[in-house]
Galactose-1-phosphate uridyl transferase N-terminal domain-containing protein
Amino acid sequence: MRPEIRKDYIQDKYVIIAPKRAQRPHDIEKPVTQFKTEIPAMCAFCPQNINKVKPVYKKGRDHGWLIYVVKNIFPAVSLDNPESYGTQEVIIETPDHTKHMDDLPERHIASLLHTYAERTRALEKILNIDYILIFKNNGGAAGASLKHSHSQIFATRFVPPQLMDKSRKVFEYKLFNGRCVYCDTIDKESKGPRFVYKDQHVIAFTPYASMHNYEIWIMPLRHVDNITKLTHVEHHSFARILKRILKKITYLNLPYNYYFHQLVNDTDQHLYLKIVPRGSVWAGVEIGSGLVINAIAPEEAAKYYRGEL
Ligand SMILES: [Zn+2]
Ligand SMILES: [Zn+2]
């Protein structure tokens, strides 16, 4: 395939898809198992330590908790700081220090999604919280300072300008086309070469203008704007495909981030989970021009996720 410039479905974000033969999935270095054995036996998130910190939410009993949520002790935003207003929480996904998220059973991952929903419900009630980001950093290069499997919620008054811009563009698209741009995208990607998985509730595909190697999105088929609106069965569908995708990313030995964006005051958004492996290092072109070069075409990435490579 010859390199081509592609534009995001709705935002003014551009990428050059420029595949290199050398970076096909089977040429990427094989998984390193020492990644799992290097980790120390105990850390601040292990039950022995974290049980001393009062949880804001937990699943399971006192000594046998499954998921444990605490306030971030080094927050960038806080409710008593009008200059940087908001709140941050850390979700410890398992008491077991050695387990990665893709090792957890499907029902455990579904419980984690339910925890995200419960915390979103609690945080959106706080006065002046307009933006709630749920995210996970896995692996050193993607920014995790602790290996014990965890994710975070960042809730603030500040809505990033690119999201306000996206909201406006989604609104305009609906005005002209009478439909949600992402509902249309789901229809389109269900059939095309970037399709990965679909059941009665969710779809997974690699986006047309993927900014990152092996970027993949999971979306509910229903037009719902945030995670609190998902049903129990939708959590399970999400968990099933999320686990499979994370296993595939672990096999590539790539660190990854994933995130849900949620705008409290825009209830017409279509929820998505973006999973972004961090295989490529952004260099001169990206830093200088903002134009990203992605050497893995999303069509190739989709083949990999579908198990065809
Ligand atoms: Zn630990
Ligand atoms: Zn929609």
